[in-house]
Design a protein that fits this description.
By secondary structure, this protein is of the alpha+beta class. The protein has helices at residues 38-46, 54-67, 69-72, 112-130, 196-205, 210-217, 221-229, 237-241; strands at 24-35, 81-90, 96-107, 138-148, 155-156. The longest helix is centred in the middle third of the chain and has 19 residues, at 112-130.
């Protein structure tokens, strides 16, 4: 049996000594899903919950949590994060919100826990925002999606379609920036009334996040969320043109 890194020779919990490791670029993404009532889901999409903007609040909460991971998880190392991000998107079942978090650093240990903590706290914040409408909301599927850097190399979750890990510098190839709406336009069918899944797959394949894409294209975020979630049947002609 392999020795657990957080236990010493006597079986006592201990913080791993990473002083001998060379600093490398580390990145990780994680996911959490929260299933809420149809009423709460509609209010999140419409932006009509009594507590305000669920997406913006949960994103900030997740980013703050990533920065405080070592204060929450006893044996985690304090890290100087170079990036922490949270994106929230509605899934097509009309009940589930997906949280995708990301974290990066250059250091001697990875950022898996930072990404997982961000996703978890963002999901908890969503619960806090909707509990007045739906106390039965369920947080599920908190998991690591990807990690890169360090001795163990690259990891991707074995099932589903996880996003690629956040880009890191490479000596062998230049990193290509993620395409935004003004750099790549979806096919016409992707924004037709029956092309919701086409649009969702188009965005997933190019790493387009709803908040960034809506802002770049000057499309109302609630309108994009409403279409992706199935709450509205089509985008407005103005948004399709943009």
């Amino acid at each position: 049996m392999s020795k657990l890194s957080h236990l010493d020779e006597r079986g006592n919990a201990t913080m791993v000594d990473v002083s001998s490791k060379a600093p490398t670029e580390r990145a990780a993404t994680a996911e959490a899903r929260i299933r809420i009532s149809e009423q709460a889901y509609r209010q999140v999409i419409d932006g009509t919950l009594p507590k305000g903007d669920v997406v913006a609040t949960a994103r900030i909460a997740g980013i703050m949590a990533a920065k405080k991971t070592s204060e929450l998880i006893p044996l985690c190392h304090p890290l100087a994060l170079t990036h922490a991000g949270v994106e929230i998107a509605p899934l097509g079942d009309g009940r589930t919100l997906q949280v995708i978090s990301s974290a990066k650093t250059t250091g001697q240990t990875g950022v898996e826990m930072e990404a997982l903590t961000a996703a978890s706290v963002a999901a908890l914040t969503i619960y806090d925002m909707v509990k007045a409408v739906d106390k039965s909301a369920v947080i599920k599927s908190i998991r690591l999606l990807t990690k890169s850097g360090g001795k163990s190399g690259v990891y991707s979750a074995p099932d589903g379609n996880p996003p690629a890990p956040p880009a890191t510098k490479s000596t062998s190839a230049k990193v290509k920036p993620r395409a935004l709406s003004h750099e790549a336009a979806p096919p016409a069918a992707a924004v037709a009334a029956d092309g919701r899944e086409n649009l969702r797959q188009f965005m997933l394949a190019r790493g387009l996040r709803p908040t960034e894409w809506a802002q770049s294209a000057s499309v109302p975020l609630n309108e994009l969320y409403g279409y992706l979630s199935g709450h509205s049947r089509r985008l407005s002609p103005q948004s399709v043109e943009k």
